[in-house]
Amino acid sequence: MTDSPREHDRLTDIADYPYVAVTIQTTGIHPSTGRLLTLDALTFNDAGETGRDFHAVLNPDTDRGPRHQHGLEADAEGQQFSKILKPLDRLIDGRTLIVHDTPYTWGFLVAEARRAMTAAARANRSRGRNRRRQRVGHVPTPERIIDTLATARRAEQDFTDIRLAAVAGHDAAATTERAAQPEAETSRAATQMLIELYRSQDEHSSYAPDDLRADRFGLQRSEVRVDAAQAPRLHHNSGFWRRGEQVRKGMEFVVAPETRIDPDELIAAGVTAELNYVEKLSRETSLVVCNRRHDLVGKAMHAHRKGIELVTDEQFLELLQDVAEPADAPEPAAPSQHPIPNANNRSRSRNAQGGKSGGKRRRGSRGGNRRRRGRGRGGNNGHKGGGNDNQKKES
Questions:
Q1: Cβ–Cβ under 8 Å, residues 23 and 152
Q2: What is the residue-averaged pLDDT of the chain?
Q3: What sign does the dihedral 13-14-17-21 (CA atoms) show?
Q4: Which of 158, 164, 225 is nearest to 24 (CA)?
Q5: Which terminus of the chain, N or C, has fewer Cβ atoms within 10 Å?
Q6: How far is CA 208 from the centre of its chain?
Q7: What is the tens place of the pLDDT at every residue in 264-281?
C-alpha cells in the first residue's frame, strides 16, 4: 500500500527535521486537575535549523489564573484542545519529542488528548442518525521522549531552580519588561531556549512513550515507578534507618530527583530487596536517596527537617547488599471501651443513648408538631385544634 502524497510529504519533513521541542503553560501542576493554557512547538534538526512551528492558546473552561504567570489577556480567546489535536499529532508522530520535565509536559499532553477523545466518543454515542461522527485525533506517538531536566540531574548539574530558564543558565527572575511582552513571544522564546539546552547536553535521558503511565495525579512516570508505589506491602515498616545499621525489609524509602543513577534503577533495586517505595515523604519514611548535601530543596529539604537520613545513590545500592529481616511488629493497641464518635460510629452511639432503639422521642418530632398544630389523627374541622376539641366534647 503506497502512502498518500500528504503522508509522503510528512515523512520527508520528519527526515529533514526529526526533533520537535514543546513547551506548555498550565493552570496547575497536576494533569488530573489542571488544564492546558498554551502550547508552543518547533521542529528542528541536529544542526539547530528549525522547520515547522506551531502555537495555540487554549480554553481551559476554568479560571486561567493571574496574567503575570502566563501572559494572556483576560479577554484572550482560546480554542478547544480537540480542535488542535489532529495538527499536533501530525507534528509529533514519528519524531523525537524534546521536553523539560517529562512527567509534567507529557502528562498534560496525554491527559488533554484523552479528555478530547472521551468527549468525542460520548458525543458519537448520542449523535443523531444524520450527524457525522467526530474524529478528533489520538494520543501523540513520538519515537522517543528526551527530558532536558532529567538529563541535567543525571549529570549532577548544580541548580536549585528547576525552571527551564534557570537550568539553561538564563535569568529566570520575573521582570516588568518580560511581563509586558505578548504571550506568543515569551512562549516561542522558551521553546527556542529548550532547543538550545538540548543541544548543549550529552547523554540525554530518554523514555519510550509505551513505558510511561499516569500516576494518581496524572503525571506520566515510568511503569517501574508507578508499580512500585502501588505494590502491596510485604512487611511492616521497621522505622527510621540510622547510619551504621542495616536496612531492614519493609523500611520505607523515597528517591529524590537529585541522583546520578537513574531513579528507576534505584527503585527497582529497593523493591527487589523487599523495601517499600513511596512517592511522598512523611514522618514514617525510613530514608531518602539523594546525592545533594547543600542548598537542599524538595524531598531532601523536608527529610532534613524531619531528621530522616539522606544517603547517596551508590550508598543505597551498597546497603541493599545486606538487608536484615524486619523488626518484630508492635503489639496492636487494645480497642478503647469508649470510642471517640466519628462518621463510622456516631449513629451507633446515638442508638445506644436511646435514639432509634426505643428511647424517649426527641423534642420537635413530626408527630408532636402535628398535634401541637391541631393536625392529629382526629382530623381538622377548619380551626386550630379542632380535632382534639371534638373528641373532648364527645367524651
A1: no
A2: 85
A3: positive
A4: 164
A5: N
A6: 19
A7: 999 999 999 999 999 999
Which phi and psi angles does 383 have, rounded to 5°? -130, 165
- Residue 210 DSSP label: G
Note the pTM of the prediction, 2 decimals.
0.79
Tell me if 176 sits within 8 A of 127, measured CB to CB.
no
**What is the tens place of the pLDDT at every residue in 293-319?**
888 999 999 999 999 999 999 999 999
Residue 279: DSSP 8-state: S
Record: fold of 5-124+133-212: Nucleotidyltransferase; domain 5 (3.30.420)
Domain boundaries, the chain: 5-124+133-212, 231-319
DSSP letters, 337-354, are SSPPP-TTTHHHHHHHTT
Residue 136 confidence (pLDDT): 87
163 grid coordinates? 525552571
For residue 212, give the DSSP letter.
E
Same fold, 5-124+133-212 and 231-319: no
> Topology of 231-319 in CATH?
Rossmann fold (3.40.50)
248 DSSP 8-state letter = B
Select from 198, 203, 194, 224 the least CA-distant residue to 212: 224
> 316, 289 in Cβ contact below 8 A?
yes
Burial of residue 73 (CB within 10 Å: 0-12, 13-18, 19+) is exposed
